[in-house]
Amino acid sequence: MSHTDRGLFVALILSVIFVVHGCAGGDRAEPAYESSEAFPMPAGLEDAVTFWRNVYAKWSRDKVVIHDDRHLGLIYEIAELPGPTEESYTAAQKDFVRSLKDRWSDRLRSLEHQVGDRSSLTSADKELKRQIETHGGAGALFGASERVRSQRGVRERFFRGLERSGAYDAKFRAVFRRHGLPEDLAYLPHVESSFQLNARSSVGASGMWQFMRSTGRQYMTVGRAVDERLDPVAAADAAARYLKTSHSTLQSWPLALTSYNHGLGGMKKAQARYGNDIARIAADYDGRYFGFASRNFYAEYLAARHVARNADRYFPEGVRYRPPISDQPVVLRYTVSVDDIARHYRVPRSVLIERNYAWLEPVRNGSHPVPAGTTVWLPQGMTRLASGQPRSSAF
Predict the structure, then answer these.
(1) Is 393 helix (H, G, I), strand (E, B) or coil?
(2) CA 377 to CA 136: how far, in whole Å?
(3) What is the CA angle 75-101-103, rounded to 5?
(4) For the chain, first and last CA: distance in Å?
(5) At what angle do helices 292-309 and 253-262 cross, to 10 degrees?
(6) CA–CA separation, 35 vs 314, rounded Å?
(7) Residue 140 — φ and ψ, nearest 5°?
(8) Would the pLDDT of 10 be above 70?
(9) DSSP 210
(10) pLDDT on residue 30
(11) CA gap 325, 307 in Å, rounded
């Protein structure tokens, strides 16, 4: 591509992208963000929250966004993926995304050299430089070529997560109320797992609330027979206890939420340097492992909360929320087999297995009993024995 053609290409992209992203007033019709005392929208995070709102509610999975990984208001291109769109990229789509990133890295590196050499700039060059400085500050051009990142839209995934959330929202809110915490923490699985029961991350986090094994063991049963990270309600209770401890230590919900991703120790270090200024922490904190995910965690939560609270505006096709689960819990006082539980409550073994997600294969196949202290989920009404007396614990 010649220098002239490249300039025309950039001018075309800029004329489209900056309007799409709202730099020309495109967000005027958006529902207003609803800050709360617990979850404020701090100055400096607006671009990041808007970015994640668009990822969740506007950009479909056939779209890939090329952007700056530090200044999320700076979007270079929104491209349509070639070929069929599945949950994961095809090989051809990976190549396509890689070529987009490489092209923009080259373009930005060239612009940086031109500015450094005091070369004359085309009108497209000047506009690109202006947008970079508008969103990132006077020195943002330098190093921009190393900050090029891609993000796929997840509108369909968020939509499905909203539908799944109907089954658990009431129980999750009850958990947080019981612990004296803000009920809106029930939105957190939109960020962590899109309310998928068996979600697993590449680093070993499991379940709807995405606990690592080591952290999970501090708050619930995580073993070879039962893994309560896979029980949404048990894991919600564990999340509530973790967040209660974290907030008690940090005295800030933005920091406590970020600790859910980065760890309490890491956030104490960030707080020691920047206080409770989450926007400053996201922009400047350079702690070990405080990468893109940690920097953006609070902004993602604010965006998810906002979209979920305004689902009818963002998903006019209509969200069909699943009905709330009506299963009831009992806690085992003794170690017993699945067959004994089935006989005791007159519930088919298969019904027990399909309701108790925390039971691993050794329990499911009968080679290991269900440990004492485990929560067992039963169909509504089955927690009463033949005598008709309700039971909060069994055996």
Answers:
(1) strand
(2) 51
(3) 100
(4) 76
(5) 120
(6) 18
(7) -70, -25
(8) no
(9) T
(10) 87
(11) 23
Contact 122, 105 (CB under 8 A): no
Residue 22 in this model has a pLDDT that exceeds 70 = no
Q: How confident is the model at residue 393 (pLDDT cuts 50, 70, 90)?
A: low
Give the per-residue pLDDT at 35: 85
HEC-encoded secondary structure of 327-344: CEEEEECCCECHHHHHHH
Half-sphere exposure of 208 (CA within 13 A, CB side): 28
Tell me the residue ranges of DSSP E strands in the chain.
63-68, 75-80, 148-152, 328-332, 375-378, 393-394
Mean pLDDT within 43-55: 97
Would you state the pLDDT for residue 383? 61
| Residue 395, pLDDT score | 60
Spatial distance between the Cα atoms of 377 and 188, rounded to a whole number of angstroms: 23
Taking the C-alpha atoms of residue 58 and residue 51, their distance in angstroms, rounded to an integer, is 10
Q: Residues 163, 86: contact at Cβ < 8 Å?
A: no
Count CA atoms within 13 Å of residue 63 on its CB side: 17
Tell whether the model's pLDDT for residue 307 goes beyond 90: yes
Amino acid letter at 309?
R
User: How many Å apart are CA 175 and CA 38, to the nearest integer?
Assistant: 17
Give kind and range of the element (H or E) at residue 274: helix 264-274
pLDDT of residue 382: 76
CATH of domain 157-314: 1.10.530.10
Nearest-CA neighbor of 258 among 222, 228, 300?
A: 300
Closest CA to 265 of 284, 241, 289: 289
Q: Where are the domains positioned within the chain?
A: 3-30+61-152, 157-314, 328-394
pLDDT digits (tens, 9 = 90+) for 224-282: 999 999 999 999 999 999 999 999 999 999 999 999 999 999 999 999 999 999 999 99
Q: Which amino acid type is present at position 156?
A: E
